[in-house]
From TrEMBL:
This is LysR family transcriptional regulator. Belongs to the LysR transcriptional regulatory family. One of its GO terms (molecular function) is DNA binding. It comes from Bradyrhizobium niftali. The keyword Cell inner membrane does not apply. Keywords: DNA-binding, Transcription, Transcription regulation. SUPFAM superfamilies: Periplasmic binding protein-like II, Winged helix' DNA-binding domain.
């Protein structure tokens, strides 16, 4: 019986299936699509079985390909975990890591944390992209993505590493020109500021545990919270913002809290990454760096 030796091809087959196609696997691995296609064909020839059907949308597994993928993926995960366990910290904390981060929190906290991390670990190559859209970690080839807000179940590894308090704020002049705000529902009647003008709901909780959801009337929208801070300072409306972004303005009196008996739900910070990556220890170290940086926020 011949001995199977194309374990590299087997690993690439797994990467292609996980990414959903050759083009996406090229972005995720950095290996040219032509090379991936050639290695996949060579693997099929070695095994004498068709593993995938190429489609316009990517690849579809055959029955045999599905069985092989299910078993291979588990074995590959175990092998990568074993490698990570025997690597020393210097080797583990090296290599390239591609990140996608929310712009405002990255500029204020996460990017400075990455700079400090790079100073301590010079063998790490950091490639950071700031994006407020929901990027596809696998298809776009990112190693680590940070998201603000709730994260849907995606099959990825994830860790909630911070919960940032938010507050309702407005300028004193704006509030003086409005009706008195006595109940949360009063917020529905005055201009508000938000990242988007549609699908805006603010979940509020009182100090005694009562909960209510309001749908304010958005008069100004911008997909940068730093711009919303400036809009609030200019008296354009009530804003629901992370406390750390408006704390200085609150201390100076340029902004004041609105509905002080009610608090908006906090911003959950979540990191997502693929489990079966050799860079797992590096990824977790960066997430820990982020969590530590946000403790002082």
């Amino acid at each position: 019986m011949s001995i199977f030796a194309d374990f590299d091809g087997l690993a690439l087959f797994t990467r292609i299936v996980e990414a959903g196609g050759l083009a996406a696997a090229e972005r995720a691995t950095g290996i040219p699509k032509a090379t991936l296609s050639r290695r996949l064909s060579a693997l099929e020839k070695t095994l004498n079985v068709r593993l995938v059907r190429r489609t316009k949308r990517g690849v579809a597994l055959t029955e045999e390909g599905q069985r092989l993928f299910d078993r291979t993926r588990l074995a590959l995960n175990l092998a990568e975990e074993a490698v990570a366990e025997v690597q020393d910290e210097r080797v583990a904390l090296s290599g390239t890591v591609r990140l996608s981060l929310p712009p405002d929190i990255a500029t204020a906290v996460l990017a400075p944390a990455l700079i400090r991390f790079k100073v301590r670990h010079p063998d790490v190559m950091i490639e950071m992209t700031l994006a407020d859209r929901r990027v596809s970690l696998i298809e776009e080839g990112y190693d680590l993505v940070v998201r603000m807000g709730q994260v849907a179940d995606s099959g990825l590894m994830f860790k909630k590493f911070a919960s940032l308090p938010r507050v309702l704020v407005a300028s004193p002049d704006f509030l003086a020109a409005q009706m008195a705000l006595k109940e949360p529902q009063d917020l529905n009647e005055i201009p508000a500021l938000a990242i988007r003008s549609d699908l805006v709901e603010w979940d509020l909780r009182s100090h005694d545990g009562a909960a209510v959801t309001v749908t304010p009337r958005i008069g100004f929208a911008a997909n940068r919270q730093t711009i919303l801070v400036e809009a609030a300072l200019a008296g354009l409306g009530v804003a629901n913002l992370p406390l750390f972004m408006v704390e200085a303005a609150l201390n100076s009196g340029a902004l004041v809290r609105v509905m002080t008996g009610w608090e908006p739900s906090p911003v959950e910070m979540t990191a997502l990454w693929q489990k079966d990556r050799f860079s797992g220890r590096l990824t977790k170290a960066i997430v820990a760096e982020f969590a530590e940086a946000l403790k002082s926020v």
